[in-house]
Amino acid sequence: KAGVTQTPRYLIKTRGQQVTLSCSPISGHRSVSWYQQTPGQGLQFLFEYFSETQRNKGNFPGRFSGRQFSNSRSEMNVSTLELGDSALYLCASSPASLVGYTDTQYFGPGTRLTVL
Amino acid sequence: AQSVTQPDIHITVSEGASLELRCNYSYGATPYLFWYVQSPGQGLQLLLKYFSGDTLVQGIKGFEAEFKRSQSSFNLRKPSVHWSDAAEYFCAVVPNTDKLIFGTGTRLQVFP
Question: Do A101 and B32 touch (CB under 8 A)?
Answer without folding.
Answer: yes
